[in-house]
Design a protein that fits this description.
Elements lengths: L18 E3 L6 E3 L26 E2 L2 E3 L6 H7 L5 H8 L1 H4 L11 E3 L73 E3 L6 E3 L4 E8 L5 E7 L4 E10 L6 E2 L4 E5 L10 E6 L7 E2 L1 H7 L5
Antiparallel strand pairs: 1-2, 3-4, 4-5, 6-13, 7-12, 8-9, 8-11, 9-10, 10-12, 10-13, 13-14
Helix pairs in contact: 1-2
């Protein structure tokens, strides 16, 4: 069984610069990587920003606009390697904290990674030969259904929810010294889905994780869905990809509602691996 009460140290809050409030009266949730500071709090934009307005790409780069995040910029401009690559390329500009970018900052969109190349002009197609007329099916004969293309067998746990605290973020509020999963910013009551088919290893109260569900998958890996308002499955139950397994909430050691998602090599605490990289290896990208 997973170790109890080891996700965070009791009594310590997970505070970051920006908080998201989910639902009326909900507690504030710390949100790393959540964007540029407001224009009033930011230092004056470089003079070049007047030539290239904030929020627009300039030749070889991008000017940060209010509300931008590294993940948003990387996604919008198709940066290969995502926000991690964008941060590494611009660490000298952003500084030691990737969670804080300011309007007016000029970021480099790495050559060859920022924009998808334009498609080559299509060759003129040869005039197709007239298709033969379809024959009507004989009366009483049922036509065979067309096969449906198979997908990767994996999906996102909460759709296109934004990512808050990333995997391996360092901090003293976690028993291991770093964040063992990734937080998805969703309010209480959001449906949570199994990322792949598997068998429920455990479901219920789990110390600092609050109510969680742990599922074992065919590849031997385990996924954990923490801080749920309530699980909707029980131990030993077989689940399918995308099946609703719980409802998000703010149980356990949290500062506000969100989904804590982990991938492990065993069902126990401390065997975590990068959950975003794991899903990406199965064709699921963010």
């Amino acid at each position: 069984m997973p170790a109890k009460g080891q996700h965070r140290k009791t009594g310590l809050s997970r505070l970051t610069r920006i908080c998201v409030v989910a639902g009326t009266g909900a507690a504030a949730l710390a949100v790393p990587l959540v964007g540029a500071a407001t224009a009033s709090a930011a230092p004056a934009a470089p003079a070049s920003a007047t030539t290239h307005p904030a929020g627009h790409a300039k030749p070889g780069g991008y000017v940060v606009a209010p509300g931008d995040t590294l993940s948003k910029i990387a996604r919008t401009h198709h940066v290969v390697g995502g926000w991690h690559r964008l941060y590494q390329e611009n660490k000298a500009v952003i500084g030691a904290d990737p969670n804080l970018i300011r309007p007016g900052e000029h970021l480099v969109l790495h050559p060859g990674t920022a924009q998808k190349p334009a498609a080559a002009p299509a060759k003129p197609a040869a005039a197709p030969a007239p298709a033969p007329a379809a024959k009507a099916a004989p009366v009483g004969v049922e036509l065979a259904a067309k096969p449906v293309a198979a997908d990767s067998g994996y999906t996102k746990p909460v759709g296109d929810a934004a990512i808050g605290t990333p995997y391996h973020a360092e901090g003293s509020m976690w028993s291991s010294g770093y964040h063992t999963g990734v937080d998805f910013l969703v309010g209480s009551g959001t449906p949570v889905h199994a990322v792949a088919a598997g068998t429920v290893y455990s479901a219920g109260a789990d110390g600092a994780y609050g109510n969680d569900v742990i599922i074992k998958h065919a590849d031997g890996k385990y996924t954990l869905y923490g801080h749920l308002t309530q699980p909707l499955v029980s131990a030993g139950q077989t689940v399918t990809e995308g099946q609703e397994i719980g409802i998000s909430g703010a149980t356990g050691n949290v500062t506000g509602p969100h989904l804590h998602f982990e991938v492990r090599t065993t069902p126990s605490y401390g065997s975590d691996i990068d959950p975003i990289a794991y899903l990406a290896s199965h064709g699921v990208t963010f």
